[in-house]
Write a structure and sequence with these properties.
Number of domains: 2
Structural class: alpha/beta
Radius of gyration: 21 Å
Largest sheet: 7 strands, mixed
Order of helices and strands: EHEEHHEEEEEEEHHEHEHEHEHEHEHEHE
Bound molecules: NADP nicotinamide-adenine-dinucleotide phosphate
Strand content: 15-25%
CATH architecture of the largest domain: Alpha-Beta Complex
Number of helices: 12
Shape: globular
CATH class of the largest domain: Alpha Beta
Distance between the termini: 29 Å
CATH topology of the largest domain: Quinone Oxidoreductase, Chain A, domain 1
Length: about 400
């Protein structure tokens, strides 16, 4: 007899959908430290539309976006859900998943019940005019499990069927759940902005090389024949980057010129400029040749952008997808125009780029860098570690349906 709700780790017969599920919920009245903001509650399993799929979540990837969601900063995501036509007073985060398709809408052709999938986090309206060119430029674009509700921190997740991609059978559920959000984002940053796409022999500076984005960026650069140099905050993280294929690393703790530089007219400016110059010399020393990076892979933002713009090669590109340390960035325009550098914003990825990244995973060219796996009830703790920059190198995941670590679907 079918049950109303299954316990965490229990798998309903394939295709059988209970009426209720357990989810890790964020509510506005709990906004604050992730440790406390996430709490397990019982909610109805969501209804799906004609272009959607309902996926039984085996494991969920942990990303920085739900640190922001837990804090309610810079936005209250539940208000965004309302604007998207899903008014709810709670948020189910989770923008990475591996799992099994349990139901598919009438118009779905790319997946069927029983398929083992990973889910990318790009959602958009299929009738958005931008969807035909690049849905990332459309007004309807949103990140599933952040701007939209019903993410992967629950037993079932509601997704648009195009988000479902084949799961690499050689990977465990938790390893498969770990890399897609950061990997597809890094893929668009490094391959999505021609002519500044990474090619054979290109030198690339990767900030936060041991982090989620950085660990994927290093491997994508290596797969394209480029030469990544990582920036990290300690030697262990640096050695981790080298194992992934980085030519070498710079420990940012050896420098102190971070943040907004003094105004260019002030006396302090020239003294400050010694910092980026010293950093540039260190970069050449680590690389073993006097070449500047053609691409700078940026996400810390306010603390590092002045150095990134300074470091970027003539005719090169600084590509940025976040401002973890702050949003007010100073770019010395003299370097931008005289050396014809490009400062390019980038945000997640379209289907083509997500699938291209997933192909690298399927081919075994990308290690998902799963560093730690959490139980379902530790999802808040895993985000707290991330918020405090105390998380391990690479990526993290949490088990949802998968009964224990180490199971593949082979
Ligand atoms: N727009 C998008 O589509 C998109 C997609 C993915 C992520 N993001 C955003 O990108 C950011 C990074 O995500 P992630 O998953 O890579 O996080 P992560 O795993 O925490 O990695 C970030 C890395 O940044 C480095 N870092 C921290 N403070 C720094 C500072 N002051 N200066 C230089 N580096 C610093 C840290 O490395 P060290 O301490 O070793 O230097 C850390 O490992 C987050 O804000 C996230 O929300 C945006």
């Amino acid at each position: 007899m079918s049950k109303d709700i299954y316990e965490i780790g229990e798998i309903p017969p394939v295709g059988e959908v209970p009426s209720k599920m357990y989810a890790q919920l964020i509510r506005p009245e709990r906004f604050g430290d992730p440790e406390k903001a996430f709490q397990i509650e019982e909610v109805p399993v969501p209804e799906i539309g004609p272009e959607d799929a309902l996926v039984l979540v085996m494991a969920a990837g942990i990303n920085y976006n739900n640190v922001w969601a837990a804090r309610g900063v810079p936005i209250d995501v539940t208000k965004v859900h309302g604007k998207l036509g899903e008014p709810d007073d709670f948020h189910i985060g989770g923008s990475d998943a591996s799992g099994i398709v349990y139901a598919a809408g009438d118009k779905v052709t790319n997946v069927k019940v029983g398929d083992r999938v990973v889910v990318h986090c790009g959602q958009w309206d299929s009738d958005d005019p931008a969807a035909k060119r690049d849905p990332m430029f459309g007004n309807s674009f949103r990140i599933w499990g952040y701007e939209s509700n019903w993410g992967s921190f629950a037993q079932f997740t509601k997704v648009q069927a195009h988000q479902c991609m084949p799961k690499a059978p050689q990977l465990t559920w938790e390893a498969a759940a770990a890399p897609t959000l950061v990997g597809a984002t890094a893929y668009r940053m490094l391959h999505g902005w021609p002519p500044h796409t990474v090619t054979e022999g290109d030198v690339v500076l990767v900030w936060g090389g041991a982090g989620g984005l950085g660990s994927m960026a290093i491997q994508i650069v290596v797969a394209a024949g480029g030469k990544p140099v990582a920036v990290v905050s300690n030697e262990e993280k640096g050695e981790f980057c080298k194992r992934l294929g980085a030519v070498g690393y710079i420990n940012r703790k050896e420098f102190d010129h971070w943040g907004m530089p003094p105004h260019w007219e002030s006396k302090g400016f020239n003294a400050w400029l010694e910092g980026p110059k010293k950093f540039g010399k260190k970069f050449w020393e680590v690389l073993g040749e006097k070449r500047s990076p053609r691409l700078v892979f940026e996400h810390p933002g306010e603390d590092t952008i002045p150095t990134s713009v300074f470091m970027c090669d003539t005719g090169g590109m600084v590509v940025i997808c976040a401002g973890t340390t702050g949003y007010s960035a100073v770019a010395d325009l003299r370097y931008l125009w005289m050396r014809q550098k490009r400062l390019q914003g980038s945000h997640f990825a379209n289907d083509e780029q997500s699938y291209a990244f997933n192909d690298l995973v399927l081919q075994g060219k990308i290690d998902p860098c799963l560093a730690r796996t959490f139980a379902f009830d530790e999802i808040g703790v895993s985000h707290q570690l991330m918020a405090d920059n105390r998380h391990p190198e690479g990526n993290m995941a949490a088990l949802v349906g998968a009964p224990s670590e180490g199971f593949t679907d082979l």
